[in-house]
Specification:
This protein has helices spanning 2-14, 81-90; strands at residues 19-24, 29-35, 40-45, 52-59, 62-66, 68-72, 98-106, 117-127, 130-142, 148-157, 167-168, 173-174, 178-189. It has 190 residues and is mainly β. It has an eight-stranded antiparallel barrel with strand order 1-4-5-7-8-9-10-13. It has a two-stranded antiparallel ribbon with strand order 11-12. Strand 2 and strand 3 form a beta hairpin. The protein is elongated and about 55 Å long.
Length: 190
């Protein structure tokens, strides 16, 4: 996997392809939706605490997207203090304080219109010391203020990252393994 990443980065650096840079806005957000055997829950990181840059370049075999975002685990809010605490503990916040999304590629160069367009792309998600490559489904659009909206979604499992879903009351309340992750990046071309 490291060899493949080095190859992609080398192609990006050596390629005469046109490069586009995007700045990720602090108003970007991430949500995680899941369920237990008795109810559903939604946890959010309502704002991004920094700005990052993503670089996109079209090459012969597709579109390379490089850059990453690092989200603080302590920023998760499940709208219930016990659930928030359990999620942070499950994600090993003290040992791994950030969740990282490393962008790798897009299926095609996004058409930036007000009408959302569907594309896919690959990312590495790094959570609690484990990295997993996943394909993300995106909706891409641009608003009247030239802000690009990149909405991504994908289902993942706690077990994908060697994590055990939280349980309460001696195991009577069990969190399901499946989580639906969605993020909304608000970005501007620079």
């Amino acid at each position: 996997m490291l060899y493949k990443n080095i190859l992609w980065i080398s192609l990006l650096l050596l390629s005469p392809a046109e490069k586009t840079k995007w700045v990720v806005s602090e108003s970007s957000s991430l949500s995680v939706n899941g369920s237990t055997n008795i109810n559903k829950f939604s946890c959010v990181i309502p704002t991004y605490d920094q700005t990052d840059t993503l670089t996109m370049a079209q090459v012969d075999k597709g579109v390379i997207l490089t850059g990453n975002i690092g989200l603080k685990i302590e920023s998760f809010d499940c709208h219930n203090s016990i659930m928030t605490s359990d999620l942070r503990k499950t994600l090993k916040e003290k040992q791994y304080p950030r969740l990282y999304i490393h962008f790798l590629s897009l299926s095609e160069f996004p058409q930036l219109t007000t009408e959302p367009k569907s594309i896919t792309g690959w990312v590495n998600i790094e959570l609690a010391g484990t990295t997993k490559r996943v394909e993300i489904k995106y909706q891409v659009s641009m608003d009247g203020q030239k802000v690009i909206h990149l909405l991504g979604s994908q289902d993942i499992n706690f077990s994908d990252f060697n994590l055990v879903p939280p349980r309460k009351l001696g195991g009577m309340i069990k969190t399901n393994d499946l989580l639906s992750v969605a993020f909304h990046l608000k970005i501007k071309a620079i």
